[in-house]
Amino acid sequence: MKKALITGAEGFVGAHLMNELIAEGYHVFGTSRIRQQGFVKMDIQNYEEVRSVLNELKPDVIFHLAGIAYVPSSWQDPGLTFEVNTIGALHIFDACRSIGINPVIQIACSSEEYGLVLENEVPIKETNPLRPLSPYAVSKIAMDFLGYQYNQSYGMKIIRTRAFNHSGPGRGEVYMTSTFAKQIAQIELGLQEPVIEVGDLTSIRDITDVRDTVRAYRLLTEKGTPGELYNIATGVGYTAQEILDKLLSMSTYKKKIEVKQDPKRMRPSDVKVLIGSNKKTKKACGWSPKYKIDDTLKALLEYWRSELKEEK
Questions:
Q1: What pTM does this model have?
Q2: For residue 4, is pLDDT > 60?
Q3: 180-230, pLDDT tens digit by residue?
Q4: Do residues 4 and 29 touch, judged by C-beta distance below 8 A?
Q5: Which residues, in sequence order, are CB contacts of 151 under 8 Å at separation 6+?
Q6: Which residues pair with 230 in a beta bridge?
Q7: In which band, very low, low, confident or very high, does the pLDDT at 267 lie, cut at 50, 70 and 90?
Q8: Which CATH number does the domain 3-167+209-232 belong to among 3.40.50.10490, 3.40.50.12280, 1.10.630.10, 3.40.50.720?
Q9: In whole angstroms, what is the distance from residue 107 CA to residue 110 CA?
Q10: pLDDT tens per residue across span 60-118
Q11: Is there a contact between 230 and 126 (Cβ–Cβ < 8 Å)?
């Protein structure tokens, strides 16, 4: 039985990845920054704590998901974003070397690294130039390239994955698909006036179901080539307006819902289009998405209906 360690396992993606790995017969340990039942306490900012946990568990594979994931927060505190996302990964790499283990390590990089994408560059391949538009994106590039460097310099088995947008049940409410779904569910339940607040509705995103994303993570650690970089994407893009329209069409609320732009939801600079090529990933491990966008959005809306009914 393979022993897997998931950093940031208490998060949205971590919870789905834990389910995926358990179903595939892995012995899974999940870490959390704070002490809580069912998780191993490990703060990736604390090198000695990272080293102690890795020395005790000696995992066969590490899925490194822990980090600051919400792009807008990186403008508020760029320094903390770098410390957590970049130095945190460095702590894992150095701890493995220090105790003499060489597990397969998947690092969760991001499509945000591509940043400013030109019209003739879609769908985006792994070789596309990087033109980051947020401190978050730059922190992920640094982690990404550290993974490459440690593979080349020390032979560490690091798999670099650039996941494009992903969503599904449990997605945090600050993210576009989830905030739309939550607001619609609140309107249906009479918890909110029939007004949805939105940001930029013209941006185009390639949205993978989180259950497909974590399956790609697993398959790439099993069949991918260390040091290589893999996009995880569907190859299809939707504007934020199209996503909102799909969710509204699924709503049980049949009266008019007003859509209102909230200046607080706008970013200083935004990536306009992110549509990824998944050809390299398909070739490496046979992965392709199983869930369609409507399946993902329906599951997300049902999740919020259930959550809000319990709170009500």
A1: 0.95
A2: yes
A3: 999 999 999 999 999 999 999 999 999 999 999 999 999 999 999 999 999
A4: yes
A5: 157, 158, 226, 227
A6: 161
A7: low
A8: 3.40.50.720
A9: 10
A10: 999 999 999 888 889 999 999 999 999 999 999 999 999 999 999 999 999 999 999 99
A11: yes
Specify whether domain 176-203+237-272+290-311 bears CATH 3.90.25.10.
Answer: yes
What are the residue boundaries of the structural domains of the chain, listed by start?
3-167+209-232, 176-203+237-272+290-311
pLDDT attached to residue 269: 57
